[in-house]
Amino acid sequence: MKRCMVFLLLFSPLFVFGKKTKEITDEQTREVYNVLKSDQSIRHGDYQKFSYSGKLLAKGRYSTGQKEGIWDYYDYYGNLIQQYDYSKNEFIFLKNVDKDKVFKVVDGDSVVDKKLDRPPLYLGGEVIMMENVFRNIRYPVEARNAGVSGKVILSFIVGKDGLTYGHKVVKGIGYGCDEEALRVVKEIPDNWAPGILNGQAVSIQFILPIQFKIQ
């Protein structure tokens, strides 16, 4: 019986990696990825994401629905900006991290301005974060009819665990734009690496402007 169990443990990865997959091209999100034929809600295999202009923004690999190994993330110009190892949950490469920038560190009810060892970072970079916003945002009919445009300033907390909370409008322009900006920002996936201060994860207040402009 023990020999049989050892055999199953040794060869179980073959059953996982030997699963049949199907390639999916999503023109709306500009993603190319593979899913299991047995359950097409589960991503499994190579993944790529492209910008509106066709530039590669991200590439990596899924294993039964989970990101695994090293993923590469790029800016709109094709420059590598992040490499993240999802198997070890750590950055391998970061480009142009500004350590002189001051952030608002949240500790209970107090907020203190501090320079950080590492700022809070969205996995994939701000390009991919804002792609989620641009894809989901809708120009409010009230604002469009009134010819209103402008910038809504939002804030939220990136917690020690990388999750976000406390979303609010700091400066609005009305006509439904404030509510719409708040809605789409709350829907940004929580793919954050928290800010680091003195080697420890800290909660940071993050400011994000959302531009409304009538084309």
In short:
This protein is α+β, with helices and mostly antiparallel strands and 215 residues long. It is built from four helices and 15 strands.
CATH architecture of the largest domain: 2-Layer Sandwich
Instruction: Give the domain tally.
Output: 2
The major beta sheet can be summarized as: 7 strands, antiparallel
The name of the CATH topology of the largest domain is Fusion Protein Consisting Of Minor Coat Protein, Glycine Rich Linker, Tola, And A His Tag, Chain: A, Domain 2
Q: How much helicity do the residues have?
A: 10-25%
| Tally of contiguous helical segments | 4
Overall spatial form: globular
Structure write-up:
There is one protein chain. The chain is an alpha+beta fold and 215 residues long. It has 2 domains: 18-95; 97-215, Fusion Protein Consisting Of Minor Coat Protein, Glycine Rich Linker, Tola, And A His Tag, Chain: A, Domain 2 (2-Layer Sandwich), CATH 3.30.1150. It is built from 4 helices and 15 strands. The strands form 3 sheets. A 7-stranded antiparallel sheet has the order 1-2-3-4-5-6-7, with helices on one face. Strands 8, 9, 11, 12, 14 and 15 form a 6-stranded antiparallel sheet that branches. The model is unreliable at 4-16 (pLDDT under 50).
